Amino acid sequence: MLGSTRGTLTTTSRPARVAACGQQPGPAVHGMADTARELDVSGRPLQPDVPDLDRFFRPESVAVIGASETEGRANTGITRQLIAWAERVGARVHPVHPTRTTVFGLPCHPSVHDLPERVDLAVLLVGDPAPVVQELADCKVRFAVVFASGFAETGAEGATAQEHLAEAVRDTGLRLLGPNTNLNAFERFREDLDGPAIALITQSGHQGRPLFSLQELGIRLSHWAPTGNEADLECADFISYFAGRPEVGAIAAYVEGLKDGRSFLLAADRAARRKVPVVAVKVGRTETGARTAATHTGKLTGADTVVDAAMRQFGVIRVDGLDELQDTATLLARARPPQAAGVAVYSISGGTGAHFADLAAAAGLQLPVLSPAKQSELHQWIPDYLNVSNPVDNGGHPVGDWRGRKIIDALLDDPAVGVLVCPITGPFPPLSDRLAQDLVDAAEETDKPVCVVWGSPVGTEDAYRTTLLGSSRVTTFRTFSNCVTAIRAYLDHHRFATGYRSPFDTAPRTPSPSAHKARALLRPGEQLSEHAAKQLLRAYGIRVPREQLVTSAAAAVRAAGLVGYPVVMKASGPQLAHKTELGLVRIGLTSASQVRDAYRELTDIARCEQLPLDGILVCQLIGRGVEMAVGMAHDRLFGPTVTVGLGGVLVEVMGDTAVGVPPFGEDHARSMLGELRGRALLDGVRGAPPADVDALVETILRVQRMALELGDGLAELDVNPLVVLERGQGAVALDALAFCR
Fold first, then answer.
1. How far apart, in whole angstroms, are the C-alpha atoms of residue 731 and residue 618?
2. In what order do the strands lie in the sheet with 61-65?
3. 91 with 61: CB under 8 angstroms?
4. Hey, which residues does 175 pair with through a beta bridge?
């Protein structure tokens, strides 16, 4: 651990310390708006609590706790770096150490309570930060950075120590970064670069190095937030803050685990409202990755399918590699909104154009065929035997003279073209030099993105280093795949942002009339029988078959007459999850004798298997339809989730499901269906009529309402199968399982 001042910086009582900080006792300055946040029906906030981090990144005064000038010590190098950073941002520096009078020529104070002013930011270079954090809170310091490790990343004991840190700052006004963080926030950022900037958030400092180095390629960075273990300030806080910064064009994040799923979604929602793209690498796609991330920062990675769905739902662009992160964030930061969705590919080689076009089309990008008039225009400068329909092959020679720029301008002038891509697989001076310059010059005169793929592995060519990287309007890639990924993300982001309507605006604030009725049906800690679970569904207006629960053969016959033949009979009990496998279902019974026999058979099986029953269900037989499954469960990060997929046994065999994180609206419920591989079944295949998708969507929304209103009492719900009938005829829940908390 850093520092050697453990336990030596806190020596006076709390009242004395407050007075000694050069201020009168008063209300804490918390660094975020002191306003009551509106809550949804489940008691969770509907707006992010956005911290004011201006004084963190641009403080007026900084205290360095545990400062040192002894050469060879880690604290000395850190102190030197902090002093240099403070000078760059115009902040006063106050070293703190119990045995020094000066540090690097600056007056050094023996303890926190001896500071001459209330400081904006305190950096702790001590092994045991807890007592110092309490001192800082007493002195109304706005922000503290704790470098020390040995907290939640080490296990249960460390997690307890970290919680004590969090408790020490809670409701005091002091916001804490760390522990287990580093100096990345205090790096030297280039100030000679223009254009919208990338704001960087990392939970591992080393993983942010490649993106920080983008500045050497002419790409502007504005901030770097190394969040570490996130005892207090978390990734979501920085997303919320950066989304409101006018200089930020995109937010890039390396995330190992999330502290709080709801906070993350609220932050992503804030960014989406402001049309600020968020691009993230999220570790934890595999069990190994999740386990390793937990040992690094001590946070939960979460179920990856839910994380993936939540990010997609709120417009966060998830990529896998750091190279994809930097390339995608760069394009999104630099490029203006698209004027069209079409991508034009322009190359000096037919093979190059065909290769890129193949990858682009496979990724779902639109490569529109250029109009006959546009092709005729291009053939003024390109030989007639070359293909100019898109991709456009110029044969090489036109790029060496005035024709090259004419071709580029003609492509950018096409209203069907929203993005121009020019893959240059290898340098071929002087033609490649002229081509690069023409692309840069054209990019300065258009609002459309111009993307170049420079394929040379050397990267020292003047056309690349000086011409392309010297332009803030051209986005230059090194691989086809990263270029395709970035363009797709760019178009997807703007399509999403243009139509975005925050689900938090329409989330329910008060319980529906169904909630009171449904709560009376819950049995804490128990699994409900099918009959009880269907009553729960009925309370929320979800259609179930006509049915009666009976406890005798005679009652079963009477029920069948009331329900109407043919009928289905099923055993009903709180421990019956898979009745078909146990032989506890009879289908298509058409007479009283069949009903009596079925009753006897079902009760005999239950008796032999020692399965407790609350009775036998006599149910209406529902006609054919598309079998779907809709359910809700609880995710440890995001809370209640809703899942929809193909029903019956297909949900287990195919795993064809989509997840939504409440709250969401009708549009997202429909988009969930669009994610299913079996979506075409709902449209009708092999002569089957289209299914009632509207009824299915309504069922999804009603299950979501149950998740929001009953989440504290309902642990899991599984409606399977939900038969979606022909269009206009509704959807019927044939079976349901419910587990209470």
1. 19
2. 92-96, 61-65, 121-124, 143-146, 175-177
3. yes
4. 143
Residue whose pair of structure tokens reads 């179920």 in the numeric block: 303
Does residue 697 carry a pLDDT above 50?
Answer: yes
Number of H helices, E strands in the chain: 24, 28
Question: Is beta strand 736-740 parallel, antiparallel or unpaired with respect to 197-202?
Answer: unpaired
Question: How far, in Å, are 331, 571, 591, 620 from residue 587 at the CA level?
Answer: 59, 12, 12, 10
**Cα(172)–Cα(188) distance, integer angstroms:** 31
- CA 243 to centroid of chain Cα atoms: 14
C-alpha span between 515 and 594 (Å, rounded)? 39
Coil, strand or helix at 275: coil
Q: Which helix (H) or strand (E) holds 619?
A: strand 615-620
302 pLDDT band (50/70/90 cuts)? low
Q: Helix, strand, or coil here: 376? A: helix
Q: Cα–Cα distance between 675 and 342 in angstroms, integer?
A: 23
Distance from C-alpha of 439 to C-alpha of 441, rounded to nearest angstrom = 6
Q: Kind and range of the H or E element at 594?
A: helix 592-608
The DSSP result for 424-480, as a single string, is E-S--TTHHHHHHHHHHHHHTT-SS-EEEEE--SS---HIIIIIITT-SSEEEESSH
Per-residue pLDDT reduced to its tens digit, 441-480: 999 999 999 999 999 999 999 999 999 999 999 999 999 9
Nearest to 66 by CA among 132, 20, 158, 141: 132
Question: Does residue 618 contact residue 534 with C-beta atoms inside 8 Å?
Answer: no
pLDDT of residue 37: 82
Give me the percent of the chain exceeding a pLDDT of 70. Answer: 93
Task: Compute the distance between CA of residue 444 and CA of residue 441 in angstroms, rounded to an integer.
Answer: 5
Q: Which two tokens stand for residue 441?
A: 């010059």
d(CA 191, CA 106) in angstroms, rounded, equals 27
Report the alpha-carbon angle 280-283-289, nearest 5.
Answer: 170
Can you give the length of the chain in residues?
741
Report the pLDDT value the prediction gives residue 649, as an integer from 0 to 100: 76
Residue 155 and residue 134 in contact, taking contact as beta carbons nearer than 8 Å: no
pLDDT(301) > 90: no
Percent of the chain topping pLDDT 90? 87
| Structure tokens belonging to residue 553 | 């053969």
Q: Round to whole Å and give the CA distance between 369 and 346.
A: 13
Tens of pLDDT, residues 657-685: 999 999 999 999 999 999 999 999 999 98
533-571 pLDDT, tens digit each: 999 999 999 999 999 999 999 999 999 999 999 999 999
How many Cβ atoms sit within 10 Å of the Cβ of residue 284? 24
Report the predicted TM-score, pTM, of the whole model to 2 decimal places: 0.91
Alpha carbon distance 547, 553 (integer Å)? 15
What would the two tokens of residue 636 be? Answer: 């440890």
Which residues have a Cβ under 8 Å from the Cβ of 590 and sit 6 or more positions away? 565, 566
Write down the pLDDT at residue 659.
95
DSSP E strand boundaries for 283-331: 317-319
- Given this model, what pLDDT does residue 651 score? 72
pLDDT tops 80 at residue 27: no
Closest CA to 710 of 535, 531, 511, 528: 511
Amino acid identity, position 652: E
Q: Which residue has the tokens 């009171």?
A: 516
Is residue 578 helix, strand or coil?
Answer: coil
47 neighbors 263 (Cβ within 8 angstroms): no
Contact 561, 589 (CB under 8 A): no
Beta bridge partners of 221: 198
Please give the average per-residue pLDDT across 491-514, as a whole number. Answer: 96
Distance from C-alpha of 15 to C-alpha of 478, rounded to nearest angstrom: 61
Over 90: is that where the pLDDT of 319 sits?
yes
- The two tokens of residue 575 are 């421990």
* Residues 412, 415: Cα–Cα separation, whole Å: 8
Tokens representing residue 254 in the block: 């390396």
> Are the CB atoms for 318 and 392 separated by under 8 Å?
no
Residue whose token pair is 């078909």: 580
Q: Residue 370 has what DSSP assignment?
A: P
